[in-house]
Amino acid sequence: MTGKNATERLSADAQGIARVAAILAQDGLVAVPTETVYGLAALADSAEAGAEIYRAKGRPDFNPLIVHVAELEQAEALAQFDDRARKLAVHFWPGPLTLVLPLRQGAAVAPAVTAGLPTIALRMPAHPVMRSVLRELGKPLAAPSANRSGAVSPTTADHVLATLDGRIAAVLDGGECAAGLESTIAALRPDGSWQLLRHGPVTEAQLSEILGEPAAVKTQSVEAPGQLAQHYSPGKPVRLDAVAAVEGEFLIGFGEVAGHCTLSASGDLAEAAARLYACLHEAGASRAPRIAVAPVPDDGIGAAINDRLRRAAA
Fold first, then answer.
1. Domain tally for the chain?
2. CA distances (Å), 310 to each of 3, 57, 228, 232, 239, in order?
3. C-beta neighbour count of 191 within 10 angstroms
4. 189-248: per-residue pLDDT in tens?
């Protein structure tokens, strides 16, 4: 439900969760914290609610949405699970891994949510607030990041309100998101292969231990969120691998490179991931016309951080 009324800011307690569930049941839009970023949630089986998500975000309708579930049984009612998918669910759910699987025939999901594709993106979030909302509602939720499309993803309620205030009914304030980066997305193919569609907190190495090496992603079609070449934009030019700022730049530091905002002074990649979007928001709001970012190692979750930075700089 978009409009000009101010967005309700609700506490993440039993009363706030019940209020959010009631809004969702009436096809409303709410922002809810997850362990990755804040999600803009709506009923996954409602065509009207799905259209409202695209409208509020200004999101292209060819870009599918991730569906969040509370239990494996809900996921299996929407997608075809093979042994590989169940093994991944056992290892990583609840958690920051999204699986792209064949859509089950007759699945209760609006076509707008899957963008008309024969696959569906599914995740079981770990955040206790999001899980409480899912249990209270008893239905799966479509929930992309709660920001205007292409902009920096939100890791606090303030970030949500910066771009969506008045465009959604409510935001459930659960504080800062712990992981700070969107979920890893892995697509399992019917021929037994798999592809990494988006880097995230679950690393390629962790997935390869279970699935073997991934197949290359050759298609340019958008099958999951975060595949657009330009994404996570702070609205200013971004220069990567900077060891110092030049005049007119806001420097985002890492390790020995100190900045106006620092991802992690100790060089901790998990801390850097959690702080990435907060620093991009701060840089975007600063008076500096340009942004520079210190080099970040490509190891582990560093691959996900660099993926976001390359898209932000595109």
1. 2
2. 34, 22, 11, 9, 9
3. 7
4. 999 999 999 999 999 999 999 999 999 887 656 676 666 666 778 999 999 999 999 999
Q: What is the pTM of this model?
A: 0.88
Q: What is the pLDDT of residue 61?
A: 65
27 and 128 assigned to the same domain: yes
- 278 and 180 inside one domain: no
For residues 226 and 314, give the distance between their C-alpha atoms in angstroms, rounded to a whole number. Answer: 13
Q: Looking at residue 2, what is its pLDDT?
A: 46
CA–CA distance, 120 with 198 (Å, rounded to integer): 15
Q: What's the pLDDT at 222?
A: 67
Both 151 and 85 in one domain: the answer is yes
Within-domain flag for 222: no
Claim to verify: residue 171 and residue 107 sit in the same structural domain:
yes
15-35 CB burial, b ≥16 within 10 A, e <16: ebbebbbebbeebbbbbbbbb
CA distance 275 to 284: 14
Instruction: Return d(Cα 171, Cα 240) in angstroms, integer.
Output: 33
Q: Using one digit for the tens of pLDDT, what is the confidence trace for 41-60?
A: 999 999 888 888 988 988 66
Tokens of 146: 């709660």
Positions of the chain with pLDDT lower than 50, given as ranges: 1-3
For 294, the domain range is 238-313
